[in-house]
Amino acid sequence: MLFNSFEFLIFFPIVFTAYWLLNKDLKKQNILLLLSSYIFYAWWDWRFLSLIIVSSFIDFTAGSKIFNSKTKKQRKNWLLVSLFANLGLLSVFKYYNFFAESFADLANVFGWQPNDLTLNIILPVGISFYTFQTLSYTIDIYRKQFQPTNDIISFFTYIAFFPQLVAGPIERASNLLPQIEKKRVFKKEWFNEGIIQILIGLFRKIVIADTLGAYVDTVYGGIEIYNSTTIILGTFLYAFQIYYDFAGYSDIAIGTAKLIGFKFNQNFNLPYFSKSLTEFWRKWHMSLSYWLRDYLYISLGGNRRGIKITYRNLMLTMLLGGLWHGSSWNFIIWGGIHGIVLSVEKYLKSNQKLKLPNKLNFLGYSITFTIVLLSWVFFRAQDLNSATLAIKKILQFNFSTPFIGDINVVVNSIIVLSIGILFDLYLFNKRIDLEDFAAKFSITKIAIIASIIILLINLFYSTSNNFIYFQF
Question: Largest Cα–Cα distance in the chain?
Answer without folding.
Answer: 72
